[in-house]
């Protein structure tokens, strides 16, 4: 039998605005069982009249006792994200359950090079992997967004970290004098900023469905082992 995950009460202890439409919620979750980078949780909101609704969100940081972080990007016609990105303040509570997922995870004891491909808010679970890295394992991140204002974790990713290379890809508007024209992810980007297939990297791809399917196909076409390509996708939006 499969054990059913319990719901936990999560108290907001901090908020950080990442962009005008995205916010990180820092939560205290008593008796949190811990999680792996790449896993996600279900969030449940319940109104005073008893109506409840829930959505899934990736964990944005590695396990840290009872502390959990979620980064949520607002979907204008959404039912949960408009609330989470504008209303909660320290002291507010809601429910979550997890961790969920065992395939799209990076284990810090792994020694293989890592290639991270993010489309839009697909950076969130990949950021948990970056933050969990404590060894000299080399990481390369290709982060595709529509325009510079859409980037999450700008200050953190700007800081130089030995063994972490970050490449931004813009699909609509690029900064002035940017060396690459605005366009979608292509094979040339993976050749220039990714790992060669013969390095046998672990590849993690997260973003909208179209981005994920394109990226996975390009990786296979370039000779990467499909067994080392792990994908996570969500609905419309992103890069």
TrEMBL record:
Lineage of source species: Bacteria, Bacillati, Actinomycetota, Actinomycetes, Pseudonocardiales
Listed name of the protein: Ferredoxin-NADP reductase
Required cofactor(s): FAD
InterPro entries: Cbr1-like_FAD-bd_dom (IPR008333), FAD-bd_FR_type (IPR017927), FNR_nucleotide-bd (IPR039261), MRET (IPR050415), OxRdtase_FAD/NAD-bd (IPR001433), Riboflavin_synthase-like_b-brl (IPR017938)
Domain of life, per lineage: Bacteria
Pfam families, A to Z: FAD_binding_6 (PF00970), NAD_binding_1 (PF00175)
Record's keyword annotation contains Iron-sulfur: yes
Keyword match Membrane: no
